[in-house]
Design brief:
By secondary structure, the protein is mainly α. Helices cover 78% and strands 4% of the residues.
């Protein structure tokens, strides 16, 4: 029996989905940080690329799974409802990832940050005024990271939700049905005598 759809149901399902999406993203971010502790540039680069691919496609598949489950669990779900669910999942999971990323930056040792700044100023031939401006930005880097990462996740998730919400409501593609029709449900019922 399908449940009735209301606003609380959308937020509840979005929260559950966001925990998985955000958890996957935070896990990949943490593994990238762990791989950065090694001294091998090849290992750092390989781990970053592999984890980016896992995170990218994992989030797409997880969002699709949650949208399909949402469509099948509730009565009267329309394309706009699944898109709304996806946007809310993107908003909440982006909050998790942005918070974790800002936390990693805040926990970075000051010596490492100073070394990074020295390398950057040497590579870009910065003068003293540019270096002071960069130090001012560096003090607010966790805030900037949080805001821009959250915005990026929300925009990416909104586009993905728009694409997937149309995809999961296609009736027939190459002869396969994505959503059961009344005829399919009647065929699966045993004959009552």
């Amino acid at each position: 029996m399908k449940r009735k759809l209301d606003s609380n149901a959308v937020w509840n399902e979005a929260g559950k989905g966001a925990l998985y999406l955000g958890g996957l993203s935070v896990l990949c971010l943490s593994l990238k940080e762990v791989s950065a502790l090694s001294s091998s540039n090849f290992l750092i680069t390989a781990a970053s690329v592999i984890l980016w691919v896992v995170e990218f496609f994992g989030c797409i598949l997880l969002m699709k799974r949650f949208m399909l489950d949402f469509r099948d669990k509730y009565e009267g779900v329309q394309m706009a409802d699944t898109a709304r669910l996806g946007r809310r999942m993107a908003l909440l999971s982006g909050l998790l990832l942005a918070s974790a990323q800002a936390l990693f930056i805040m926990q970075m040792p000051q010596e490492d940050m100073n070394t990074l700044m020295d390398q950057l100023s040497t590579a870009m031939s910065m003068g003293s005024s540019e270096r002071e401006a960069m130090d001012g930005v560096l003090a607010k880097l966790p805030v900037y990271t949080f805001v821009f990462q959250w915005l990026y996740c929300f925009l990416y998730g909104t586009v993905l939700a728009s694409i997937l919400s149309r995809y999961i409501f296609m009736q027939e593609v190459f002869g396969t049905r994505f959503r059961p029709t009344d005829e399919d449900e009647n065929e699966n019922k045993p004959d009552e005598q």
